[in-house]
Amino acid sequence: MSDELTLRVITPDRIVLDTEASSIRVPASDGSMGILRNHAAMVAALDVGLLIYSRGGAEHVLFVSGGFVEVRDNTVRVVSEAGEEPAEINEERAQEAEARARQRLDEGRRQTDLDVLRAEMALRRAQFRLRARRGSSLS
Predict the structure, then answer these.
(1) What angle do CA 35, 36, 39 make, to 5 degrees?
(2) Three-class SS of residue 30?
(3) Three-state SS letters, 89-127
(4) Which value, in Å, is the radius of gyration of the alpha carbons in the chain?
(5) What is the pTM assigned to this prediction?
């Protein structure tokens, strides 16, 4: 019997990943959540962050931007607004997005609460994209 799970990451545009994994860690809205074979069936909300999975003894990282995860019958389905492998992330563009978000936050006194929240979320997305691109799996 295999110790593998099926992992599928789906965005509105495409299937980002369809592979086997021995373990999976997702950025759930209430903290990092680990998933192994024979995990109980569940659905959970995802936060912006890094999805980390092990395959063939190696750890792999994928950026995800919210959504939800469903675990059922040793299949893990992640449905997210965005999902990007490190090689797909444009580091320069992510750095520019991070700088713009920091600038908006620095100007926060003149903005509404919604503008500040949007800037904070843009900053988090940019930071996690950079961590994925640079190979940091710390979540």
Answers:
(1) 80
(2) coil
(3) CCHHHHHHHHHHHHHHHHCHHHCCHHHHHHHHHHHHHHH
(4) 16
(5) 0.80
DSSP classification of residue 81: S
Arch. (CATH architecture) of 5-84: Sandwich (2.60)
Q: Which of 55, 52, 10 is nearest to 27 (CA)?
A: 52
Residues 40-87: pLDDT tens digits? Answer: 999 999 999 999 999 988 999 999 998 999 999 999 999 999 999 988
Residue 72 and residue 85: Cα distance in Å, rounded? 24
C-beta neighbour count of 35 within 10 angstroms = 21
Contact 70, 76 (CB under 8 A): yes
